[in-house]
Amino acid sequence: MIIGYARVSTTDQNLDVQIDALAAAGAARLFSERISGANRERPELDKMLDQLRDGDVVVVTKYDRLARSLRDLLDIVEAIKERGAGFRSLAEDIDTTTPAGELIFHVFASIAHFERRRIAERTLEGLAAARKRGRVGGRPPALSPDQKAEVIRMRDQEQRPLREIASLFRVSTQTVRRA
Questions:
Q1: What pTM was estimated for this model as a whole?
Q2: Cα–Cα distances in Å, from 30 out to 7, 46, 56, 129, 142?
Q3: Neighbour count for residue 3 (Cβ, 10 Å)
Q4: For residue 19, what pLDDT is reported?
Q5: What is the mean pLDDT of the chain?
Q6: Closest CA to 60 of 10, 103, 105
Q7: 172 catalytic residue (yes or no)
Q8: What pLDDT score does 106 carry?
Q9: Cα Rg, the chain, nearest whole Å
Q10: What is the extent of the structural domain holding 170?
């Protein structure tokens, strides 16, 4: 039996394209969920894995719909294999029911893992270069140093309520507390 698995990361994303592609690929059963791939607790994925039988083939539109990390992807595909089932990814044209397909799967997964690590590396390098030039990322402070001093003075010397101070500076009471 061909079993489809579809996943999107957020509730505002749509599963329709994946569901249509899986139906066109012949999926007799379909498991779908709206949850981050980084979250290993995915009820529909677990339910699908529990129901796999010898000879079934799990089909996804892209292998990143199944997992977000190489380790997770390999673990899930191994769990599928242990149940006597195969794995197929439509976009990458990978089919682990054949030895060549299994080899290609491992090569693609390794390349994807390498690329994610390179992106993370380049991001960190860019942040370090920006810091070296005196640029710091993140949200700018809500209060200038002079405003912080005035907030502290109003609170300590004038005993004004936090809400009033926050209103005067047009910031939240939490910002006043932090100052």
A1: 0.60
A2: 11, 13, 13, 47, 49
A3: 22
A4: 94
A5: 89
A6: 105
A7: no
A8: 82
A9: 25
A10: 145-178
- Three-state SS for the chain is CEEEEEEECCCCCCCHHHHHHHHHCCCCEEEEEECCCCCCCCHHHHHHHHHCCCCCEEEECCHHHCCCCHHHHHHHHHHHHHCCCEEEECCCCEECCCHHHHHHHHHHHHHHHHHHHHHHHHHHHHHHHHHHCCCCCCCCCCCCHHHHHHHHHHHHCCCCCHHHHHHHHCCCHHHHHHC
Is the CB of residue 70 less than 8 Å from the CB of residue 101?
Answer: no
The answer to whether residue 138 sits within a structural domain is no
- Report d(CA 50, CA 142) in Å as an integer: 51
Select which of 9, 36, 69, 144 is catalytic: 9
pLDDT at 37 over 70: no
Q: Pick the residue with more confidence: 97 or 11?
A: 97
Tens digits of residue pLDDT in 49-99: 999 999 999 999 998 888 877 778 888 998 999 999 999 999 888 888 888
| Residue 120 lies inside a defined structural domain of this protein | no
- The amino acid present at 136, given as its one-letter code, is V
| 158 and 99 belong to one structural domain | no
Q: Count of CB atoms within 10 A of residue 170's CB?
A: 8
pLDDT score at 4: 96
User: Is 84 domain-assigned?
Assistant: yes
| pLDDT 10s digits, 155-170 | 999 889 999 999 999 9
